Amino acid sequence: MDEADRYSRIRFPEDRARALVARGMLRTILAAQSGIPPAGLAFHYSPKGKPTLAPVHKINLPFSVSHSGDWALIGVGGAGRVGVDIERLRPFRKLSAIADRYFAPREITLLHQVDEASRLRTFFSLWTAKEAFVKALGGGISHGFHTFTVLTDNQGQPAVSDVDGSEAEGARWTIWSGEPTPGYLASVAIDLPAARVVPHIWTGSDGEQPWCLQGSNPARSVDKR
């Protein structure tokens, strides 16, 4: 299935337009990183739908894309895997039921321990972190949200506590969560310990820089209205 077919399957015109804008942003960013003109970039999709640069380019440039409402988040990694997720904070009645279905036991306990005023934000902090993590691995919800645990510290920053019971595997990852604009939460996952995230809003102008993950294996994430 080519890009045109994929976007034609998006039901609502507004969602289709947002997806096309995000893909245009992605092409611009990947072109800057790879030296390939935006229109010359070709993509390959895994059986689970994860996009990568097509093998013809012979470039290892992992990336991840997420959008919610009027915002998009794009992550581009170096040699390491990267995943991103952004969600609009919105109340809904089935929060506890969704957590009980998808979250790991300690995450469910954490969610029920926080006060009512903090519960929605805690839920989305965990959800975006888990989405970003499985997207870095190349999957989605079907990967098994309950097979790994994400916990938050006193400042609300999430971290992968364990993967399939292995704390050592969890320690390999950095999860960053932030609020790019009021009413939205975004998370970035990268398989590099202690990566540092420096967030900026990117508008495509020369004077502004994207969000950057800085470390021995740098990655980049960008969000734009």
The sequence of SSEs as H and E is HHEEEEEHHHEEHEEEEE
The N- to C-terminal Cα distance equals 28 Å
In CATH's first tier, which class of the largest domain applies?
A: Alpha Beta
- Please give the number of β-strands: 12
Compute the average pLDDT.
Answer: 81
> How is the biggest beta sheet arranged?
5 strands, antiparallel
How much is the radius of gyration in Å? 17 Å
> What is the CATH superfamily label of the largest domain?
4'-phosphopantetheinyl transferase domain
Structural class comes to alpha+beta
CATH fold type of the largest domain: Ribosomal Protein L22, Chain A
> How many domain units?
2
Residues in β-strands, percent: 25-35%
Structure write-up:
By secondary structure, this protein is an alpha+beta fold. It folds into two domains: 3-62, no CATH class; 82-224, Ribosomal Protein L22, Chain A (Alpha-Beta Complex), CATH 3.90.470.20. The protein has six helices and twelve strands. The strands form four sheets. The protein has a five-stranded antiparallel beta sheet with strand order 3-4-12-11-10, covered by helices on one side. Strand 3 and strand 4 form a beta hairpin. The radius of gyration is 17 Å and the shape is globular. The two termini are 28 Å apart.
